[in-house]
Q: What sequence folds into this?
């Protein structure tokens, strides 16, 4: 097998990489988590399962971002540059992602990772012969670990038994998730629209500050967070209630 060559990314390319991953995660999983599934059992179960994929994607993003962010000195970027604004957005996404990930325990994350691997890979390749990847948050950083098959089964059963199984457990997780008043739902979702990220990507890649009006409004919102001791929060349920009352 040929040895894979390491590709060295510039600062601008690295920042664009993370913007693209944010956009991909939001486009693939974010919308259906917001969808009101009242009375639709199939959609509701799908949402609960997708929550496991969404959380795995959040952790995966955090692991890579926190590893590579340490090598980017924001002070070296020109004030007001496209790269600096894009990095500010990624830093905000890191903080809000940590907030979302912190509402579940390490064992609960493991159950969701178990389900995610089952949905994506299938039982045999994911669990019976291989260790399961685990995530833990320590001092604002994500630490990756591994759980042996026997340990995974024991920890999964202890977490899911009180609810009567993994499906019921995911229903409980999803309810906690949509009721959690997060900074993410109130603010970040408004500035993480694909059009805004596309414009930030283009400007960072071309070293341009010719932003669209949508991007300018998003940057003003980001800038305003610095002066708020506690940014506004709202839950998904509150967003759904607001939408249905209009």
A:
């Amino acid at each position: 097998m040929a040895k894979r060559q390491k590709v060295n990314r510039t600062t601008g390319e690295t920042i664009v990489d993370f913007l693209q991953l944010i956009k991909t995660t939001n486009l693939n999983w974010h919308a259906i988590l917001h969808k009101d599934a009242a009375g639709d059992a199939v959609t509701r179960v799908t949402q609960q399962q997708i929550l496991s994929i969404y959380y795995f994607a959040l952790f995966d993003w955090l692991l890579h971002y926190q590893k590579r962010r340490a090598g980017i000195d924001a002070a070296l970027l020109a004030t007001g540059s496209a790269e600096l604004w894009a990095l500010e957005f990624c830093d905000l996404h890191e903080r809000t992602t940590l907030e979302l990930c912190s509402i579940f325990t390490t064992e609960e994350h493991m159950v969701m990772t178990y389900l995610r691997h089952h949905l994506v890979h299938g039982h045999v390749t994911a669990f019976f012969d291989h260790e399961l990847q685990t995530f833990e948050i320590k001092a604002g950083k994500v630490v990756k670990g591994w759980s042996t098959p026997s340990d995974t089964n024991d920890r999964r059963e202890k977490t899911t038994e009180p609810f009567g199984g993994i499906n019921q457990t995911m229903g409980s997780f999803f309810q906690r998730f949509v009721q959690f008043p997060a900074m993410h739902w109130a603010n970040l979702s408004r500035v993480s629209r694909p059009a805004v990220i596309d414009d930030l990507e283009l400007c960072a890649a071309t070293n341009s500050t010719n932003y669209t009006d949508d991007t300018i409004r998003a940057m003003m919102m980001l800038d305003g967070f610095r002066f708020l001791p506690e940014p506004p929060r709202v839950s998904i349920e509150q967003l759904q209630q607001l939408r249905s009352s209009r």
The mean pLDDT is 84.
